Amino acid sequence: QVQFVESGGGLVQPGGSLRLSCAASGIIFKFYDMGWYRQAPGKQRELVATMSPAGSTNYGDAVKGRFTISRDNAKNTVYLQMSSLKSEDTAVYYCHTIMGNSNYWGQGTQVTVSS
Q1: Average pLDDT over residues 1-26
Q2: N or C: which end of the chain has fewer CB within 10 A?
Q3: What is the mean pLDDT of residues 7-36?
Q4: Exposed, middle or buried by CB within 10 Å (0-12, 13-18, 19+), for 88?
């Protein structure tokens, strides 16, 4: 069964940085697009970034130029490096993939940007 375990969230001041990790199991990781989404209170879940097995990336407009997605296929892990964080980046961040017609999500990790 597919499982994702996210880590690296926490409280950070505006302008600071964090790196999120998502360790996957139950999936041939290197074959699948991996992504990060986020959901702030009272808002819809939104795309943060995705990365294909070949390394192609796609970013949400709100994070372009500040966040970087990467993956280590040997470790079955996808990362999200977040820099120049803003209060509006506060959200629960989720790891995601699609296999066939099914969406798989991690449990989420809270990121809070506040002084």
Answers
A1: 96
A2: N
A3: 96
A4: exposed
Radius of gyration of the chain (CA): 13
Nearest to 35 by CA among 46, 54, 19, 48: 48
H/E/C letters for each residue in the chain? CCEEEEECCEEECCCCCEEEEEEEECCCHHHCCEEEEEECCCCCCEEEEEECCCCCEEECCCCCCCEEEEEECCCCEEEEEECCCCHHHCEEEEEEEEECCEEEECCCEEEEECC
Question: What sign does the dihedral 98-44-94-105 (CA atoms) show?
Answer: negative
* Residue found by looking up tokens 């798989």 in the block: 104
12: its two tokens: 């950070």
HSE (side-chain half, CA atoms, 13 Å) at 63: 27
